[in-house]
Amino acid sequence: MSEQTMAGRTVLVTGASDGIGAETARVLAASGATVLVTGRSADKLRPVAEAVGTEPLVADFSRLDDVRRLADQVGERVGTLDVLMNNAGGMFAPSKKTSDGHEPNFQVNHLAPFLLTNLLHAQLAAARSSLVVNTSSVANLMGKVVLDDLDYEHRRAIEFPAYGTGKLMNILFTRGIAQRWSADGIVSAAVHPGPVGSSFGRDSWFVGLLYRSPLKRFATISVPDGAAPLVALAERGPDPEIDGLYFSRFTAHGRENKQARDQKVIDGLWERSAALVGLT
Description:
Elements: E1 10-13, H1 19-30, E2 34-39, H2 42-52, E3 57-58, H3 64-77, E4 83-86, H4 104-119, H5 121-126, E5 130-135, H6 159-181, E6 186-192, H7 205-212, H8 216-219, H9 223-236, E7 245-248, E8 251-252, H10 263-276
Parallel strand pairs: 1-2, 1-4, 2-3, 4-5, 5-6, 6-7
Antiparallel strand pairs: 7-8
């Protein structure tokens, strides 16, 4: 029997249909948390929701209206949110624009969680002491944020660097939350969980090839091992000492892109993202 370390706390886990999101949800529920789960696959999400004792909240982050509906559904179910695990994401072919017309690595990895987190600000603030965890990646080192061309309208988008840029944006968003919302008792951290052997990359031909090959077992760690850093941060809770930090698994101050602490980029990304999703 797990210790009830999360008893009395309410958690929302995105990207919970499978992989580290599903595992994180199960572990936190076993630790006593009330866990809400969301993902884009109703069939995969249903058993996860049943396992944690809640109903599935289906949302596709390639559709911003789904994100808005999700925020409304969460608001209808809970008045306070202690932990938001922004775990949904993936690597996508840049040519396949979202229904909102955005480059998919930008929208699914950054813009959608940015919108969701802002729409749930009231619930996070109502907890008086809450935590936002953004699942990032060591791939942030390959990213480059161009504030005047977030959607790659004036340059060619290449799949892996575009993914890395989305993961860099997760760190920049974490810093933005730390700077803007600390007075509301909201703490934020970003984390690289490690190279997890899950369904990550299923939308990417290149990554999918690796993950379907025998090389997968040499290149990746297990799903429980990948979920462990997320669980550790959730259980640690809104500790001001971790506010704005990027973790490489359990180690603070992981290797970051040089843009990750550029204040103009932190502010510019927030402002442009808010404008794109209609929050200004």
